Amino acid sequence: MKDKIACSGCGLIVHRVDVDEESISVCPRCKTTIESRGMDFSTIIALAFSALILYVPAVSLPLLTAEVGGILEKNSLLTAVGYFFQEGYVLASGVLLFTTVLIPIILILSILTMLIPIHFNRFPYVIKVAYKLFTLFHYWVLFDVYILSMIVASVKLEVTTELLLGSGMTFFLLEFILMFFLLKWFEPYDVWRKIEKSNYRYQ
């Protein structure tokens, strides 16, 4: 069965094709992309490290500063989660925490856990764990949820409230861009291709 693969769209079993960087393999029945090649691992590692560096200021520094009655209120991603929770929006708080705080760092660390050992021609069992985590969570990155929540909160503020961009907004936008390209250019199946060619055994 190593020369065959199931389509994720319709379940059709098709022969595996060795695609290059400029081509993709599609299902003959539903046209779902079955296999494609991502960016080279060195580029992905560099993007992941950059995203990791920006992650802390992106979630902890204030994104918006609201001036209400002469009092400045600074709101970061983490304080927004706390605000929704304190106001009784427990579900919204949980979704915001999960999709914009936890999932990005899980994906970044999963990618680094897979690619750094492979870069040094090592294949520990943790690669398999990281692979499963990535494939499980990579569809759950929803930075736009927080952006939408900021817009909604801004509309509900009083007209006299003055909104200012916080120092964390630059880091947040850069993190958003890095995560977009990281997930766009990283192809998880490239990890298995590399491992299969190395005739590995988990260490």
**Helicity, as a percent range:** 55-70%
Q: Which strands sit side by side, in order, in the main sheet?
A: 6-5-7
Total of domains: 2
N→C terminal distance: 24 Å
Number of helices: 7
Give the low-pLDDT segments.
none
What average pLDDT do the residues reach? 79
| Rg calc | 21 Å
Query: How are helices and strands ordered from N to C?
Result: EEEEHEEHHHHEHH
What's the overall geometry? elongated
Percentage of residues in strands: 5-15%
**Could you describe the largest sheet, including whether it forms a barrel?**
3 strands, antiparallel
Tally of DSSP β-strands: 7
Q: Helix/strand/pairing class, anyone?
A: alpha+beta
Please describe the topology of this protein.
Layout: E1 4-6, E2 13-15, E3 24-26, E4 33-36, H1 41-60, E5 64-68, E6 71-75, H2 77-86, H3 90-119, H4 126-137, H5 143-156, E7 162-165, H6 168-185, H7 189-197
Antiparallel strand pairs: 1-2, 3-4, 5-6, 5-7
Helix pairs in contact: 1-3, 1-6, 2-3, 3-4
Notes on the protein architecture:
The structure is a single chain. By secondary structure, this protein is α+β, with helices and mostly antiparallel strands. It folds into 2 domains: 1-37, no CATH class; 39-197, no CATH class. 56% of the residues lie in helices and 13% in strands. The chain contains 7 helices and 7 strands, in the order ββββαββααααβαα. α1 runs antiparallel to α3, α1 packs antiparallel against α6 (168-185) and α3 (90-119) runs antiparallel to α4. The chain starts with a strand and ends in a 6-residue tail after the last helix.
